Amino acid sequence: MSALDQIIVKQKIEILELLTGCEMRNKYDVLNSVGQQCYYAEEESEFCNRICCGPMREYVMHITDNSQQEVMRISHDFVCCVGCCWCATDSSCGYEVKIEAPVGNIIGYAKQQSSKWKPHIRVFDANRQPMYVVRGPCCWGCQNCFCTDDIDFPITDLTEQNVLGRMFKRWAGCGREMFTDADTFGVTFPADMAITSKALLFGTLFLVDFLYYEQQKNNNNN
């Protein structure tokens, strides 16, 4: 990850999910800026949780390298009544993921913050000290349905005056957008950014996917 300045995460289409409408475990190919596979991500979760709890379910995302060694882990614990943008705070019901790299070594967290309409996420270090702010567009749901451009989530410092990179959701075409939850996401950052910071922002991508887009696709499938 030290040499990377961009990571692309492509979710795989699950044929059984298309045929049955039942949410399957998410699987992703993780690519560098020239399309070379550098990691693989696979969700671990219970079937009943996926069906009953949707994107708020408890899960562990295992990140493995090309030699199938687990190098990173992203986890989300189930919390009742989580994900509301109006009341999410550092200490209450904001959607949160914990990020470990390597496994067993917590490097930080990403957590949803209170906002009116715009997605608002803060990235914290292992001591829960804030490091970065990620904000999305006001009408991110409408953009997902009607806009064929990337949907940008700028990454800034805590002052929100200096843009350090961006997260984005890539348009996949009308059919794929409407009938599958197989999204393509990415994150860009300076090549000389600390590896721990890159890993934290990479892990935050999965929060963006589950919190803002998994729910929408599940509703479409239903």
Describe the structure.
With 222 residues, the chain is of the alpha+beta class. Helix content is 24%, strand content 34%. The protein has five helices and twelve strands. A twelve-stranded antiparallel β-barrel has the order 1-2-3-4-5-6-7-8-9-10-11-12. A hairpin with a 5-residue loop joins strand 6 and strand 7.
**Average residue pLDDT:** 83
Distance between the termini: 38 Å
Percentage of residues assigned to helices: 10-25%
Total number of helices: 5
Compute the number of strand runs.
Answer: 12
- What structural class results from the helix and strand content? alpha+beta
What string, H for helix and E for strand, traces the elements in order?
EHEEHEEEEEEHEEHEH
User: Main sheet, how many strands, which sense, barrel?
Assistant: 12 strands, antiparallel, barrel
- Return Rg in Å: 16 Å
Low-confidence parts: 216-222
Overall form: globular
Oligomer: single chain
What is the beta-strand fraction?
25-35%
Q: Which strand order do you get reading across the main beta sheet?
A: 1-2-3-4-5-6-7-8-9-10-11-12
